Amino acid sequence: MTAPRVYRSLEEIGPEFGPCALTIGNFDGVHLGHREIFRRVVEIGCRQGWTPSVMTFDPHPMRVVAPARAPRLLSTPDQRSLWMGESGIRQVLILPFNRDLSLLTPEEFVERVLAARLGAKAVLVGQNFRFGNRAAGDVHRLRELGEARGIVTEVVAPVVYRGCVISSSQIRQLIESGAVARAARLLGRPFALEGSVVAGHGVGHRQTVPTLNLATQAEVLPERGVYVTRTQDLDSPRAWPSVTNIGTRPTFDGDRLSIESFVLEGLEPPPPARIRVEFLWRLREERKFPDPAALKDQILRDAARARAYHRRCSSRIQYSN
C-alpha cells in the first residue's frame, strides 16, 4: 500500500486536495474501530471519485484546551499516517491545533475549513464527535451545516469487541496494566516501542545475559515485567524473537527504568542502531533476586518459555490472552 500524501498545515493545501471523502479525529493508535471508519471513507471515495482523506491534529487538542486532562499518546502523527495508508487513505492533513483553531465556531469550521479549503463532499465521524469552540458542535450540527454546503455527513457505529467498545483509552489501560496480548487484539497488531539502542551498565555481559537496551520517547509503556517480544532492526530487514524486561533492575539496586531485550537467536554484527520491540505476551512481574546467578537462571527460563511461544505461533502472531 502506498504511503499517503501528508500535509502539515492548511496553507499547504491546494485545489488538488478536493473533492474528498474525509474523516476527522485524533485516531491515536489507529485501532480496529478507526480502521472501520477508514474502510467506509475509502469505500465512499472510490464509489464517488473523491479522494479518501483524514484530518488529524498535532498536538492533541486536549493539550491546548485542557492540558491537565490530556491523554498520554500511543503513537506519533507520522506513525498514524502510515497506518492510515495501509487502510487505503490517500492523503492526511496533520493540522496544528492552536488557540486560533480552537476558537472557530462550528459554522466557521465547516465553512472555512471543510468546504472552502478541503473541498469535502462527505464527512464521516464517530457518534461522539464534537467540534468548534467549546465543543459546541455535535454530529447533528455537523449534518445540518454540511447539508447547506453540499456535504454529506455519515456517523460510523463503534466497533465492539467482547461486549466493549474499542477505544484508545481502553487500549492505553490494557498496555499499562501489562495486558499487551489483549491490546494487540484491539489494535489489530502488537503494541510496539521504537527508539535507539543505547549502552547499558555492562552488567548483562558480565553477570547475566547480553541485551539490547532501548531508549524511547514513547508516552505509553507496558507495566513493569518480562514479556515475549519480537525485536526488529529499523534500518534493515533483520528481526529476532526476543524476551524483554521493563523495570529498574532491582537485583542490582537500580533506580532508573530500562527496557532490555535478550535476543533469542544469533545476533550477527553489526548490532542494530535503532530497533522496534513488539510486545506479544506478558510472562511475569519484575522481581528482585538474591544474586546475579539466580537472575540469570530465571532469564534462561524466561527465554525457554519465550522460545516455546514463538514456536507455537511459528510465522503468525498470537494475540489472545
Write the layout of secondary structure elements.
Layout: E1 5-7, E2 20-24, H1 32-48, E3 51-58, H2 62-65, H3 77-86, E4 91-96, H4 99-102, H5 106-117, E5 120-126, H6 139-147, E6 152-156, E7 160-161, E8 164-165, H7 168-176, H8 180-187, E9 191-198, H9 203-207, E10 212-215, E11 225-233, E12 239-247, E13 258-263, E14 274-284, H10 292-313
Helix pairs in contact: 5-6, 7-8
Which labels suit this protein?
alpha/beta, single chain, Elongation Factor Tu (Ef-tu), domain 3, 2 domains, 31% helix, Rossmann fold, 321 residues, 10 helices, 6-stranded parallel beta sheet
The CATH homologous superfamily of the largest domain is called: HUPs
Tell me the number of structural domains. Answer: 2
**Distance from first to last alpha carbon:** 30 Å
Architecture (CATH level 2) name of the largest domain? 3-Layer(aba) Sandwich
Question: What would you say this structure looks like, in words?
Answer:
Helices cover about 30% and strands about 25% of the residues. By secondary structure, it is an alpha/beta fold. It folds into two domains: about 5-160, Rossmann fold (3-Layer(aba) Sandwich); about 165-315, Riboflavin kinase-like (Elongation Factor Tu (Ef-tu), domain 3), CATH 2.40.30.30. The chain has a six-stranded parallel β-sheet with strand order 1-4-3-2-5-6, with helices on both faces. Strand 11 and strand 12 (about 240-245) form a beta hairpin. It is elongated, with a radius of gyration of 22 Å.
